Amino acid sequence: MSLKSKNLLGIEQLSKGEIFEILNAATSFRKILDRPIKKVPTLRGITVANLFFEDSTRTRTSFELAEKRLSAETVNFSASTSSLKKGESLRDTVENIEAMQVDIVVMRHSAPGAPNFLARRIKSAVINAGDGCHEHPTQALLDVYTMREYFPTFEGLRVVIVGDIKHSRVAGSDIRALKKLGASVAVCGPRTLLPIGIEKLGAEVYSDLNKAIKGANVLYLLRLQLERQHGGYIPSLREYTQLYGIDVDKLKLLSDDYIVMHPGPMNRGVEITQEVADHERAVILEQVTNGVAVRMAILYLSASLIRDLEK
To answer: In what order do the strands lie in the sheet with 125-131?
Structure first.
C-alpha cells in the first residue's frame, strides 16, 4: 500500500490504512536514527524547500534533519529576508522556487488553508507543517506514533487534550487522527478556549479538569497560544494555572498505565509543573525524536509517488 496523494495537507485526507502506512515506514526510519551513521541515500536527487512563514524551532529543525538523514538537497526559505518584503505575492515566490526544480515544498503559514492554496497552483508536492489554527498533520502523526509505542491498540484508548483548544492546530489534527484509529478523545479547557462545534469532530467536551482526566491513558497538554489570541480569553495566567495546570497530584487521577505528552514549547509553571515535565511518565522528548522518523517517512512516501509519476 502507498499514499494516494503526494501532498500531505491535513489528517482529513488520510485513511486509517494510510496512517498506519506512515507509522510503519516511520518504524523502519526510527531504527536508522539509532545507528552510528544516521544517514541513508533514499532521497538522493530529491530537492526539498522549507518555507516557514512563522517562527518554528522543533518542526523546522525536525524537517531539516529528516531531509539530511535521507540525503535530500535542501533549500531553507525565510520570509523575513525574502522578496515578500518587497511586495512579491506568495504565489510568485513559490512559483519561482518551483522553477528552480524543487520536488517537495514543506510549508508553515499563519493563514489557514495556505498549503492547500499552494498545492492547487504548483506541481511540486506540498507538505503542511502547520497552517494557522487549522491543522498540523505531521505533529499528529508523530503523536500517534509515540502513543503506539506504549499501547498495543488504539481501540479503547482514552486521550484527553487539555489547554487552549481554540487556537491550537495540533488539537484538531490529533482528534482527527485518533478518532480514525479508534481511540476515545476528550478536550478540556476554559469555555472561552473551547471552539464552537469541536464535538462534531467526535471529541467529548469538558470544562472541569478533574472529571476530564479521570482514568485517561494519555494526558496531552497544550500551551496557551498567546500569539494567536486577540482578546481576554482568561482572567489571568495564575487563575488558569490553578484550574487547568497539571501537577503531580493531578497525575493520580489518570489510569495506571498513563503517559504525559506535550507538542512544545512548554510553559513550565503554567500548564505543566517542573515535576510533571521531567516525570518518568512524560514522553515529551521521545515525541521530538519520533518526529524526525515520522517526517522521514512522509518525505520518503511523497518522493516515491513523485518518482512513480515521472516513470
So the answer is: 73-78, 47-52, 104-109, 125-131
Write down the pTM of the prediction.
0.94
Residue keyed to cell 518555507: 51
CA 213, distance to chain mean position in Å, is: 22
**Count of domains forming the chain:** 2
User: Same domain for 262 and 294?
Assistant: no
Same domain, 278 and 174: yes
- CA angle centred on 138, ends 132 and 140, rounded to 5°: 90
**Which residues lie across from 8 on neighbouring strands?**
127
Report the pLDDT value the prediction gives residue 59, as an integer from 0 to 100.
95
> How many other C-beta atoms lie within 10 A of the C-beta of residue 192?
14
pLDDT tens for each residue of 10-33:
999 999 999 999 999 999 999 999
Torsion of CA 205, 210, 211, 213, to 10 degrees: 70
* Count of other CB atoms within 10 angstroms of residue 21: 17
Together in a domain, 208 and 297: no
User: Does residue 182 belong to any structural domain of this protein?
Assistant: yes
pLDDT, tens digit, 9 for 90 and up, residues 88-122:
677 777 778 778 889 999 999 988 999 999 999 88
Cis ω before 263 (30° cut-off from 0): no
Domain with 162, as residue range(s), is 137-283
CATH number at 113 reads 3.40.50.1370
- 191 and 294 together in one domain: no
From CA 16, how far away is CA 25, in angstroms rounded? 14
Residue 70 and residue 60 share a domain: yes
**Nearest CA-CA partner of 154 in 221, 217, 222:** 217
294 φ/ψ angles, rounded to the nearest 5 degrees = -65, -40
Give CA–CA dist 137/127, Å, rounded. Answer: 9
Pair 145, 279 in one domain? yes
Cα–Cα distances (Å) from 221 to 5, 97, 185, 209, 224, in that order, read 31, 37, 13, 12, 10
Residues 85 and 110 in one domain: yes
